[in-house]
Specification:
single chain; alpha+beta; Lipocalin; 2 domains; 4 helices; 25% helix; 42% strand; disordered N terminus; disordered C terminus
């Protein structure tokens, strides 16, 4: 509230009037850079102008990178080629948490090639589940990062990391329980053939042993079937 009030006064009165009036209120000390006529001395005026220019320059550097035709950011195309063997839509079936699941799993490029989107739609008796994740290469930390959204209450730990080992994509997410215990969820997605994937979900609580919590067989759906709407399934379950 006070900040809004101060901002309004500064806008209406100008810098000199603002400083003089607020000094009378006791919120700031008596100004030493205002002359007898209530005018701001050149030294402090130059300071205000310099600060304003700095703020404008910072804002410009952030925004102009997105609108300058000569400096358009480019997606991490080379790094995202690691996902190429997994791209496509698959019919899936298997078990997760001792429940049978059927549906679809899809990997596709998204947001103008900046991300890889994974869409998992699966059903079991009484449960209709959807999970979407977005993954990309973060050059600042030199890692593949991912963020997930699904049919559960919002979780503060919705981000994780991805790495590749041989024919496997390994997705890892660490979350915290209310008591502070760390829980590691991991999906290992292996290329069985050009038309088949295998997804295994694992979990480790604290420093305990890693446990398997589910697996899915994924068979590629042909382009013709996808276009004809033949994949009337839902997507495959991952962790959580």
């Amino acid at each position: 509230m006070e900040i809004t009030h101060i901002k309004g006064l500064a806008t209406r009165q100008g810098a000199a009037g603002f400083v003089e009036n607020y000094s009378k209120s006791g919120l700031i000390s008596q100004p030493k850079n205002i002359n007898s006529r209530g005018e701001m001395k050149p030294s402090i005026l130059r300071l205000f102008l310099a600060l304003g220019f700095c703020v404008f320059s910072i804002c410009s550097s952030v925004c102009f990178g997105q609108i300058d035709p000569k400096n358009v950011p480019q997606p991490p195309t080379a790094e995202l080629k690691k996902f190429d063997p997994f791209l496509g839509k698959y019919q899936v079936s298997g078990d997760y948490a001792n429940l049978p699941w059927t549906g679809t799993l899809e990997f596709k490029k998204a947001i103008k090639g900046w991300y890889i989107e994974k869409i998992i739609l699966v059903k079991t008796e009484g449960i209709d589940r959807e999970l979407r994740t977005f993954a990309t290469w973060d050059k600042n930390v030199q890692k593949y990062r991912t963020w997930g959204f699904q049919t559960t209450p919002t979780m503060p730990d919705n981000g994780g990391e991805i790495r590749f080992e041989g024919d496997q994509m390994i997705v890892e997410l660490v979350s915290s329980r209310p008591d502070g215990t760390k829980v590691m969820f991991s999906d290992r997605i292996r290329v069985v053939s050009k038309d088949e994937l295998e997804l295994v979900s694992l979990m480790r609580v604290g420093n305990g042993a890693t446990e398997k919590i589910g697996s899915l067989k994924c068979k590629r759906i042909s382009s013709a079937n996808v276009e004809a709407g033949g994949a009337a399934f839902d997507v495959s379950g991952s962790h959580n």
